[in-house]
Design brief:
The structure is a single chain. This protein has 308 residues and is of the alpha+beta class. It has 2 domains: 162 residues, Lysozyme (Orthogonal Bundle), CATH 1.10.530.10; 119 residues, endopeptidase domain like (from Nostoc punctiforme) (endopeptidase fold (from Nostoc punctiforme), Alpha-Beta Complex). It is built from 11 helices and 6 strands. Helix 2 packs parallel to helix 5, helix 3 packs across helix 8 and helix 5 packs across helix 6. The longest helix has 29 residues. It is elongated.
């Protein structure tokens, strides 16, 4: 069955969808200083939602596999990275390593162009634009490709989507890559976020979840916050969003930090929804029936409270 995406603007469903890519994302993210594993993960989410194998969709222009390689580019960069005797554009290892090498080559080329005054702009942004529109488009535009409708409607939003979700993928990949995000002494807020991220993709269940974890197969909004806060701090929150609002201290939304609780959907009795702030205007929450624990933008009416 169809599962709602756990990241806004992506096709990524449960966290297991990226776990099989993690070892190769880590390896490709170590090829050069400019390209990291979280950037590659965000790019693969934008390209094809980590879909691989014979049933992976082919783009209208013939780009194939999770890295969406055109035939000519694959001929140049496609190699047998996992030693199975073939360079498989529909696989995992071979496309990820090919993407890493292509991105590193373009990063170095664009950095050289910047030093020579041929292009201007953020080097990583331009490298991602080159993956979508071709490195020639970057040089012709003297920076971010612009003017052509494809550049305005596809390339620029593509780059923005990758950069916006890069930090989220860093958290998702941290258990696999040893990135050390959260969990350290004095970093309680990040620990709260990381504990909630363990359950990305788990179904929303009304009344589900408590300090011990999911129940009935999932979480509701306050069940998720109850679990993550207790596991990180030992603080037992009241069970509903309305009663959780009275714990801790309200802080201005602009001053919210990762791990602060966000409250919204205001009603006569108080907030009808609670979430966990992760930074960058994003939160992790269990939204509603038929949805899953996922990342989404902070609601306009939300207020923040710090409870630790």
């Amino acid at each position: 069955p169809s599962i709602p995406a756990i990241l806004p603007g992506t096709r990524l469903a449960p966290i297991g969808a990226i776990a099989v890519f993690a070892p190769w994302l880590k390896k490709a993210g170590e090829l050069c200083d400019g390209i990291s594993a979280p950037v590659l993960a965000a790019l693969y989410s934008a390209e094809n939602g980590f879909r691989y194998g014979p049933t992976a969709p082919v783009s209208p222009v013939g780009a194939r596999g999770p890295g969406q390689f055109m035939p000519g580019t694959w001929d140049q960069y496609g190699k047998d990275a996992d030693g199975d005797g073939k360079a498989d554009v529909l696989g995992i290892a071979d496309p990820v390593m090919a993407s890493g090498n292509l991105l590193c080559d373009n990063y170095k080329l664009i950095d050289d162009w910047k030093k020579r005054g041929l292009v201007e702009g953020d080097t990583l942004d331009l490298t991602l634009a080159a993956y979508n529109a071709g490195v020639g488009a970057v040089k012709r535009s003297g920076g971010m490709p612009s003017g052509h409708p494809d550049y305005e409607n596809q390339t620029k939003p593509y780059v923005a989507k990758i950069r916006a979700t890069e930090h989220v993928f860093a958290r998702m990949l941290s258990p696999f890559l040893g990135l050390g995000i959260g969990g350290g002494a004095g970093d309680v807020g990040n620990r709260i976020v990381d504990l909630a991220f363990k359950y990305l993709g788990l179904p929303y269940v009304w009344g589900g979840g408590n300090i011990n974890g999911p129940s009935g197969g999932g979480f509701d909004c306050s069940g998720l916050t109850s679990y993550a806060v207790f596991a990180a701090t030992g603080i037992t929150l009241p069970r509903t969003s309305e009663t959780q609002w009275h714990i801790g201290t309200e802080v201005p939304l602009y001053a919210a930090r990762p791990g602060d609780l966000l409250f919204g959907n205001w009603q006569a009795g108080g907030p009808g929804h609670v979430a966990i702030y992760i930074g960058g205007g994003q939160m992790v929450h269990a939204p509603t029936t038929g949805d899953v624990v996922r990342v989404g933008p902070v609601f306009p009416d939300m207020k923040a409270r710090r409870i630790f």
